[in-house]
Design goal:
Elements (H helix, E strand, L loop, with lengths): L8 E6 L18 H10 L12 E4 L9 H15 L6 E3 L3 H4 L6 H11 L6 E5 L2 E6 L9 H17 L5 E5 L9 H8 L10 H9 L3 E6 L6 E5 L2 E5 L9 E7 L3 E8 L29 H6 L2 H4 E5 L1
Helix pairs in contact: 2-4, 5-7
């Protein structure tokens, strides 16, 4: 692709805010999550540090909703907050937006009433690059019908614009971002990666144009490469270490930088991969301190991928 036809692109990915902006939440959430969510969203409002971005993608779990009542109320409140943004916002569904009920019309209704029915699986055409947004929030709980639909939709989107560099955004990572057995223990849920492996197979076999996959869900940050594709996970703002991602696409590279919220907003008690949830932090062979297990190594927080 000629560089003269490529307009540089800068966008951000935020995830796992777990905001409870609606009154009377049904369950307690993460300590300080609302304050951190307000700070994050303010960066995309007038005068904010990220207001110059081309757009922002919300990679799931922007709300904490635990049942239909709270999901409906919190999505409504989130929509009001998003109106204050001065950059375009694109949603990606997380498990807390639908309580893992992917394919269930009753649980999906509050999401599409907030964002639109076309905002589950869709593509963002941004100049000479394309961002593919995939709903895999119901992994393990997904119905056979929805599983087939998801596969077909992703295959179609991957093949619709051959030769165009692509970035995939989904809530649940497609790969294990840490040693698999250790990650399973520290996260505590089966969804430490997308359990429908045909999705990863599609990226491996039909995703020649895919340069980067961005996810959340795990509440830790890190990156691994598989078959030349970088798989990035960011912790989100609700849990320590409180991260988000900034991505710049040029004619030659996709450059990624993981940023952290200001230190005064940090709350180590919100960590779900160490104290107070566990008596000690976790490590694995490539992350030999609890800090790097949570944050990733420096090479996972700032890197480039060739186009």
């Amino acid at each position: 692709m000629a560089s003269s036809s490529f307009q540089p692109l800068r966008f951000a990915v935020i995830n796992d805010l777990h905001a409870q902006f609606a009154p009377k939440p049904s369950q307690p959430g993460y300590p300080g999550a609302n304050e951190r969510a307000e700070w994050m969203l303010a960066q995309f409002s007038s005068g904010g540090a990220l207001a110059g971005m081309d757009f922002v993608v919300g990679a799931g779990d922007l709300i904490h909703g635990e049942d239909l009542r709270s999901i409906t109320a919190e999505l409504k409140a989130m929509r009001q907050r998003l109106k204050q943004l001065t950059v375009p916002f694109y949603p990606c569904c997380g498990n807390h937006e639908i309580r893992q009920a992917e394919g269930n019309p009753a649980y999906e209704a509050p999401y599409w009433q907030t964002y639109g029915k076309d905002r589950f699986d869709y593509a963002i055409s941004a100049g000479a690059a394309e961002i593919i947004v995939l709903n895999n929030a119901g992994t393990f709980h997904v119905t056979a019908k929805r599983r087939e639909q998801r596969f077909d939709r992703l295959k179609h989107m991957l093949g619709a614009r051959p030769g165009v560099p692509k970035i995939v955004v989904c809530h649940v990572p497609l790969v294990a971002i840490r040693d698999r057995d250790i990650l399973h223990r520290s996260f505590g849920f089966l969804s430490y990666r997308c359990l429908e492996t045909e999705i990863l197979d599609l990226i491996d076999t039909h995703g020649a144009d895919v340069r980067l996959v961005v996810s959340g869900h795990l509440h830790i940050s890190g990156m691994v490469k598989r078959h030349g594709v970088a798989h990035l996970v960011t912790a989100g703002t609700a849990s320590f270490p409180h991260d988000y991602a900034m991505i710049t696409v040029t004619s030659r590279t996709v450059a990624v930088e993981v940023g952290s919220l200001p230190r005064p907003l940090h709350n180590p008690a919100s960590n779900i991969h160490g104290p107070p949830r566990y008596t000690r932090g976790f490590t694995d062979p490539k992350h030999q301190t609890p800090r790097t297990y949570l944050r990733g190594n420096p090479s996972e927080r700032k890197f480039t991928v060739p186009i």
